[in-house]
Amino acid sequence: MVNLGVLSGLSWRASLGAARKAIVQRQISTGNREVSGSLRGHRQEFASDLTGQIIRKDNGMVSRSVSVLHGDAVKAYGRLNRILAENDIRRELKLRERYEKPTYKRQRLRRESHARRFKDEVRRKVHLIYRMSRWGL
């Protein structure tokens, strides 16, 4: 069984660039060349914020385990990618990379809501047409 820390691992990598920028800016502003442990501290702080939002009671880790059967890591990676795609994890992480103003967030949520309703209506109409064709109409 291979435990792949999906949420925390991808989030750390997504915030790594921001952490490096912050360290460089701190070095420039303070003139200090030695900023030890700042990146590690930023990672831990970011991970604790993330797990504070989504936490499991048993061990506090947020991850997804995908079993590797018969040493076939490619299939396990494919299953993991399918899980990520079904749950929109990558989209969530992309949205969390930058601050989204409340106005734009409301607009985005409204657009997504309308798109979901439209998709649901189209699905119902197609199902109705399918049933009518089965009835012979």
TrEMBL record:
Q: Which UniProt keywords apply?
A: Ribonucleoprotein, Ribosomal protein
Which GO terms of type biological process are on file?
Answer: translation
- Does the entry feature the keyword Ribonucleoprotein, yes or no? yes
The Gene Ontology CC terms held by the record are: ribonucleoprotein complex; ribosome
Name the InterPro entries for this protein.
Answer: Ribosomal_bS21
* The keyword Ribosomal protein appears for this protein: yes
- GO MF annotation list: structural constituent of ribosome
Its family? Belongs to the bacterial ribosomal protein bS21 family.
Concerning NCBIfam families, the annotation shows: S21p
Q: What is this protein called?
A: Ribosomal protein S21
Species assigned in the record: Coemansia reversa (strain ATCC 12441 / NRRL 1564)
Q: What is the lineage of its organism?
A: Eukaryota, Fungi, Fungi incertae sedis, Zoopagomycota, Kickxellomycotina
